[in-house]
């Protein structure tokens, strides 16, 4: 028994040693594993979704390139202390595939990251612009629909400022409060006058007048030799009148009207400011006899007043809003825009071209007629070039046809047919008392509602008819008698 037990003892000791060795080995493995997971310098397994945005885009560009090697997305990326150092210094790593299929790393500057950020900003800005356009589009549609409703009432002659969109009403209130021209109207507010009465009042109270150089300060500046020798109303055949005239507004509604041939059929055609005909002949015609221009056209370099062909070969009539008191000395020293210097220059360069400056008294007399025929307080600013041009042609013509001053069914908020600017104020007024001007013109209109809706055409009698022989049993004679009677009543009321 003793020998057997002695032979087993060494065996048990060996087993104990083996167990201790195994435990030590497992401990070392555990520590190694722990060290592996805690050490960021070792290999880090990552899924494809953990690739950086830069790496993903780079891989996509490689796979989409004809010269690149098509491969499935990599699942493992390697990070080293050196690479992390470059990252801290503002570098990024881009993953590329070499021609033999090996994965290589290529360092690029962070310019790509800046480009990405810029692209993202552009994307966000485009999104904001789309939202603003959509919002503005909805608002513009609302304003246009409201403008159309006002114009429908305007064609009937019964529109009012209370019908305007809120922003136009606010503009009107602001101009009333500002009163920059120091308007102090003391005339009468008449009730609704007839067509004849309004025409007679304009003829009697607002006579066409231009600067003739006889008043100060112009007489001291030698304007009596500078202005054309013949008055504007006597320019053609010593006072004879045109039988039929056209006034062509710049309204966007005249586009696609095909009115060009009809407009050119009139003896004389008046146009406004910088409205061109080239390229728009089918809608607005070619003929231009008179062009009325506000002082901005003369003063602003972009209009190239003294060099542009747009202002050649026709009679020019300029105007500027002087103070309501018509203080010519004050006006000359402080015009709204300097029209005097360009006028003098053009008269010296082109002495044979008829070029006139409207007397500011004529401008404000027109305003008085508008206010006198309106129970509401209108904007204390001069009438528009449109209304001024209409009355000017009524002084020169037997019959005047005005196109798109009161909009047709083609009505749009496009301000001018030759520009891309939209604003309801161009149709219904903000600075100028446009709504009230158009109400007065509609009261004088003898054209049909069909012409008004399809052509935007208003037909007006000229002032010549008021001088017809009273012995003639004609409409002209009746109108002349009516005007004389109205003038007597008007003077008596004053």
UniProtKB/TrEMBL annotation:
Compartment(s): Golgi apparatus, Golgi stack membrane
* Keywords from the UniProt entry: Disulfide bond, Glycoprotein, Glycosyltransferase, Golgi apparatus, Membrane, Signal-anchor, Transferase, Transmembrane, Transmembrane helix
Q: Locate the compositionally biased regions of type Polar residues.
A: 77-87
**What are the record's GO terms for cellular component?**
Golgi cisterna membrane
* Residue segments, region Disordered: 49-95
Indicate how the chain sits in the lipid bilayer: Single-pass type II membrane protein
Q: Which is an annotated GO molecular function term of this record?
A: beta-galactoside alpha-2,6-sialyltransferase activity
Q: What class of enzyme is it?
A: transferase
Q: Catalytic activity, per the record?
A: a beta-D-galactoside + CMP-N-acetyl-beta-neuraminate = an N-acetyl-alpha-neuraminyl-(2->6)-beta-D-galactosyl derivative + CMP + H(+)
List the GO biological process terms: sialylation
EC number(s)? 2.4.3.1
Per the record, a Pfam family? Glyco_transf_29
Name the job this protein performs. Answer: Transfers sialic acid from the donor of substrate CMP-sialic acid to galactose containing acceptor substrates.
Sequence similarity: Belongs to the glycosyltransferase 29 family.
Q: What name does this protein carry?
A: Beta-galactoside alpha-2,6-sialyltransferase 2
Organism lineage string: Eukaryota, Metazoa, Chordata, Craniata, Vertebrata
